[in-house]
Every structure is written in C-alpha cells, then in structure tokens.
Design goal:
2 domains, two-stranded antiparallel ribbon, 11 strands, alpha+beta, Arc Repressor Mutant, subunit A, about 50% helix, about 230 residues
Length: about 230
C-alpha cells in the first residue's frame, strides 16, 4: 500500500517544474485545452525561442506537457486533465495566500469580469456560472459529494440526459468520471472530470455558451440564459 510519503519525490519534482514564472505563463496559456506551437508560447511568456524550447523540453520530460509534430512545427498541450486541475488548484492557493497579506487584493478587482463570469478550465466550465450550476446540482440532489469525489444520482442522470449530456460517452472516457475542481476566482468548487467536460460540450454545442476574444472567457448567449436559468430547478 502506497503512503503519502511515497508520493513526496514526485510532488517535489512537479513543484520544481512549476516553480518558474516563464513555464507557468506557458502552461496558463494552454489551460483552454488547446495545443499551441513553441513559437507562440515563447511570445506569450516573453522568452527567446531557445529559452522557451528548453523550458518546454523540461515540461515534456516531466510529463506535464505532450508534444506533437505538425509539419515542421512542434505543438504542445497539457498532458492530462489531472495536470490542468493541479494548475488550477495552485492558482486558487495563490489567491488564498493573497488574502492573508496585510493589503489583500480582492478577486473582483484582480480578475477581468468576463473571465470571472464564465471561462474554460482545460476542458470543463469554470467561473461564477460553473460554481452556481454545481451548487444547484448539489442542492437538488443531482449529485452526491464525498470529498473530491462526485457521484451522479438517478435524478441527476435524468436531468442531464434531458439536457442532451452524453453520459455514456463520459463514462467511457479513460479518466475520472466526476470530481470537484477548485475554482480560483470564486474560491468554491465547480464540476470537473469527464462529466464536467461533457456538460461544457453540451452547452457549447447547444449555443448556450460561446467563446469570446479574450482567451478562455465564455459568453452566455440569450438562449443560454433561458436554459441555464432552468438548470437543476
């Protein structure tokens, strides 16, 4: 049986990879689930191509990023949803420590309104909308929460199926089905895992949400306002 001590070297190794502002900036640019070329990531992080290449190589070797070749270019993406969740959790922890400082900066002032309202968190929904939907699912007993584990009830199966969420496909994915994910701007959980990804996919496909010009930010459409107002009620 593995103990928490067994994971210490791996956690320490991961922490060292993330303890660099340039690498974290590149990772943050990939939190929308996209794959981006090395040159674009270098530009985002304000690094020279050679410096960015070295940082990206370390992240690939450490299992944080996946690399794929497209012609003469190399593209990078976050390796797993769990990796993205760890990055999101770190962002949440940063805000928590800021509040303990003598002059904390309120989240509402430090986060752009569109990004705080609705955004992607790798492949699922985050922000005020996501936290509200998760709370409604809990309050109307669509889900049961045990720590970070989330179980779907019969009422939840019926409710999400009626909205068009493909639960069969979500269960078939080789990843955690449903879990809590810490929301860094709201400091409350939203829905993660394959179920969270399926819910976001449904919202985008139904045109309830749509991307904006701001990276990761989503806009609730008039159609979405009507449907989401009735979500889990």
């Amino acid at each position: 049986m593995r103990t928490n001590v067994d994971y210490a070297p791996g956690v320490s190794s991961l922490a060292s990879l993330l303890a660099d502002s340039g690498r974290m900036t590149m990772l943050w640019a990939l939190m929308d689930g996209s794959a981006r070329p090395a040159g674009e990531l270098a530009l985002v992080a304000g690094l020279s191509p050679s410096s960015a290449s070295g940082h990206l190589a370390r992240l690939v070797d450490g299992g944080v990023l996946l690399q794929e070749a497209r012609g003469r270019h190399r593209y990078f993406r976050i390796a797993t949803p769990e990796t993205a969740a760890a990055i999101e959790a770190l962002a949440s922890a940063v805000l928590a420590t800021r509040e303990l400082r003598p002059r904390p900066v309120p989240v509402s002032r430090s986060t752009p309104v569109p990004l705080r309202h609705a955004r992607t968190c790798y492949d699922h929904l985050a922000g005020e909308i996501a936290v509200d939907l998760f709370a409604r699912m809990r309050d109307h007993r669509w889900i049961r929460i045990d720590g970070s584990d989330v179980a779907l009830t019969d009422a939840g199966v019926d409710g999400l199926t009626s909205l068009g969420v493909d639960l069969t496909a979500a269960r078939a994915r080789r990843r955690r089905f449903a879990c809590t994910c810490p929301d860094w701007s709201e400091r409350k959980p939203h829905l993660g895992g394959a179920l969270g990804a399926a819910l976001l996919n449904t919202c985008l496909h139904a045109k309830w949400l749509e991307p904006t010009r701001e990276p990761r930010a989503l806009r609730v459409t008039p159609l979405g306002e009507r449907h989401l107002a009735d979500f889990a009620t």
